[in-house]
Structures are given as C-alpha cells and as structure tokens.
Write a structure and sequence with these properties.
By secondary structure, this protein is an alpha+beta fold. The protein has three domains: 1-78 and 271-316, no CATH class; 83-180, Sandwich (Immunoglobulin-like), CATH 2.60.40; 183-263, no CATH class. The protein contains seven helices and 16 strands. It has helices at 33-36, 40-45, 52-55, 58-74, 163-168, 266-285, 306-315; strands spanning 81-90, 100-103, 109-119, 122-126, 135-138, 143-146, 172-180, 184-191, 202-204, 219-222, 225-226, 232-236, 241-244, 254-260, 292-295, 298-301. It has a four-stranded antiparallel beta sheet, with no helix packed on it. Strand 5 (135-138) and strand 6 form a beta hairpin. It is flat.
Length: 326
C-alpha cells in the first residue's frame, strides 16, 4: 500500500460553456515507485522496496515532484488529461472568412471535444461533429484550424452581437475542451491483492500497467459484471489501487478498464527518475540547499549537479516552443 499524495484539481470558479467548472492541467507521476526501485541509480542510492522511503509514501511524493519539474522544464504535460483551454483576442472575420490556426499548449492531443466562441457572457458553439465539421486537425503537432463563421446580423446561430463587431474589435474568447497525452487504453486488466495484503478489499493493477489517468473514466468489473462506482474508491491513481467498501470472495475475478500513463515516452520517464535521484541526493548530502561549502582544505561545489543537467539535456526535444496565441 502507498501513502502517496495525489496532485489535486484546481477550482477556478469559472464556469465553462457547458456549465461545468473549468478544468486545468495538473501534475501526475510519470514513474511508479516499483519502476524506480529497479532503476540503476536507485540501486546505487540503496533504495529498495524494503526502504522506509518506499513504504512511507515519500518516494511517491518525490516522483510526483520530479514529474512536475519535467512539466515546468518542458512547459507542457505528457500524461492523458481532459482540460479546458482559453485564448483571448479572437476575431471572427465574417466578411472575409479564412482558416484560423489555434495552437494548443499540449500535444499530441487525442480529441477536440468542443469549441465555443465567447462574447461577454454568451457562447456560440463551433460545430466539431464529423459530418459537418469546420475543423482541420493536426493532433501530433498540437494545433487545429477552423473557419469560425458567425451570423453577420446577430440574429442567427445564437450570436449575441453582430459578428461584424468581432471583425473590428478582438472581443472574442475561444474555448477549447480537448483530451491530450501519451496514455494507452487498457481493457479488462486483472487486478490482484497487493503483496502482503489479505483484506479482500484492496486490489492493484500489475506492474507496467499502473499510473492511472485521473481525469479519465475508470470502470471496475467483478466476474465480468460492472461494479457500481459507489462500491469502491480509487485510493491511489499513481500505483493503480482500488479499495472496495466490502470484502469480495477470494474466488471473485476483479478486472478494470482505464487509461494508463505508463506509455509516456522513455525520455520523459528517464528524466523523471534522474530528477528524483537528484532530489534524493540533494536531500541527503545538501539538505540546506547550499551552492558550495568548504572546511579548511576540503571544499564541495553542488550546483545543479550532473543528474539534473543530464535530465534537462534529455528533455530539450520535448520543450514546447510553439506560439501561445491564435
């Protein structure tokens, strides 16, 4: 079992076009602690599954912090999430319609779920259905193109003001709800009791198929029959653990379908582990965060360290350098 702290959601209070709270991207782990303890650098640090740092949940926290650091360095996220992204300064150009390129912050994206143009408190939906879509997509590059046609009179398709105004003044806000990330869909994967657990309530996905995507649907089955979401709790997304409210029979077969983020690029996982080792090493040998210290004839210079530099070098191809505006 793990005492991991989950990265939280952000309650912005801002209502989206569909009436729900705006969803922002949050940090999630890119490496499980069971992967980490088998890593060569972790072996060098003397960390195993019997170490206190493993059982206390501290290693989960370090890996989450390291994953967040990868996100900050790259200015993007790599796990699968569904979020709302807004861009201001939008013009409709109804009298000279043309393709408008919208660059998203995260790629590759799986699906653009909805697009709305906001003017003041009103929303106009852009059709993204396959049959009548004005959408031209480039998921691997992280952008799409639309022809945002609106009523020129303000009386059609729900436009609150004449679109001609949006042609003169950049009053519009473009809302995009989309799902992105390198996660893989896992179907009917068997869950078992974690090592050392016999409560017949707690079940875990196998090593290599954990790191559950928190914002995506997770379904659990008992003997191939769908289990109500009220009958269990996902207690640890980073390690793929659920706990039933009541015990199940030892003969029951528990399976789950979900999206696993184990499939993020190898470089992302490697950089995460390097940064985690850097944090552990700094915490052990340089807890005060000094740049250097010297005692008579002995001196030590910490700086960023070779592990940190190696991680940054590895992440260079993944840094988001695309423009942030429409």
């Amino acid at each position: 079992m793990s005492n991991t702290i989950q990265s939280g959601t952000v309650e912005t209070g801002l209502i989206t076009p569909t009436g729900t709270k705006k969803m922002l991207a949050v940090d999630s782990s890119y490496v499980t602690k069971d992967e980490f303890v088998n890593y060569s650098y972790a072996t060098g640090l003397g960390i195993t599954s019997s170490s206190t740092i493993y059982s206390s949940g501290e290693l989960d926290r370090i890996l989450l912090r390291a994953s967040g650091e990868v996100n900050r360095i790259c200015r993007r996220f790599f796990d699968t999430q569904t979020i709302d992204e807004t861009k201001t300064g939008f013009r409709a150009q109804p009298f000279n319609p043309q393709l408008t390129t919208v660059v998203l912050k995260n790629r590759p994206y799986r699906k653009v779920n909805s697009i709305y143009i906001q003017v003041l408190k009103w929303f106009i939906q852009v059709d993204t259905t396959s049959a009548n879509s004005y959408l031209q997509e480039f998921p691997d590059l992280g952008y799409y193109k639309i022809v945002p046609l609106l009523s020129s009179s303000g009386g059609g398709v729900g436009s609150p003001i004449p679109a001609a105004i949006l042609d003169k003044v950049a009053l519009g806000v473009l809302w995009t709800n989309y799902t992105f990330g390198y996660g893989t869909t896992i179907t009917s994967e068997t869950l078992t009791q974690p090592t050392g657990t016999t409560d017949l309530k707690t079940y875990q996905a196998p090593i290599g198929l954990r790191l559950w995507a928190k914002s995506q649907t997770i379904t659990v089955y008992k003997n191939s029959v769908l289990v109500s979401s009220s009958a269990y709790t996902v207690t640890d997304y980073a390690n793929g653990i659920i706990k039933f409210n009541n015990v199940v029979l030892i003969t029951d077969v528990i399976t789950a379908s979900y999206i696993s983020n184990e499939s993020v690029p190898f470089d992302i996982k490697e950089a995460t582990m390097l940064l985690a080792c850097h944090q552990i090493g700094q915490g052990g040998s340089n807890p005060l965060g000094m740049d250097s210290f010297s005692i008579q004839t002995y001196s030590a210079n910490f700086g960023k360290g070779k592990l940190y530099e190696k991680a940054v070098e590895m992440l260079k191809p993944y840094v988001n350098r695309l423009p942030k505006i429409i």
